[in-house]
Design brief:
By secondary structure, this protein is of the alpha+beta class. The protein is 37% helix and 32% strand. The chain is globular and about 45 Å long.
Length: 128
């Protein structure tokens, strides 16, 4: 399945969840429901995926965790904040670079509409 197809399914499900539940819940609620809906659509979903970091020859196991990894290729970072900041986008870019993944979605469920809370982030450093 192509990234665009996977992203489209994720965005559709996020919009439906936001319409049904609205803003104001904890990130963990949106993460749980979104993961369940994606699995029901037949996608392989992993939650709270531990990712090691190799730095200066040392391996640091589970240095960070990705909220949701879909089909082993699409990174989802779930937020429930008043507004996304540049730091949130940098977080996703760093995750993508360290995991050598091409694309991620930063999703803020606290926006008035879900569409305004979704940012697609590309990894332009796959060769690193």
């Amino acid at each position: 399945m192509l990234h665009g197809d996977i992203s489209g399914i994720v965005i559709d499900e996020a919009i439906e969840i936001h319409r049904a539940l609205g803003p104001g819940l904890f990130e963990s609620v949106y993460e749980t429901v979104l993961a369940g809906r994606l699995e029901a659509r037949g996608l392989r979903v992993q939650r709270q995926v531990p990712v090691p970091i190799v730095f200066d020859g040392l391996v640091f196991e589970a240095a960070f965790k990705v909220d949701i990894l879909v089909e082993s290729t699409l990174v989802l970072e779930i937020k429930a904040v008043e507004a996304l900041s540049k730091a949130h986008a940098k977080q996703v870019i760093t995750y993508l670079r360290l995991m050598k993944q091409p694309v991620g979605l930063l999703m803020n469920f606290s926006c008035a509409t879900m569409v305004e809370g979704i940012r697609r982030i590309m990894n332009n450093h796959l060769a690193d």
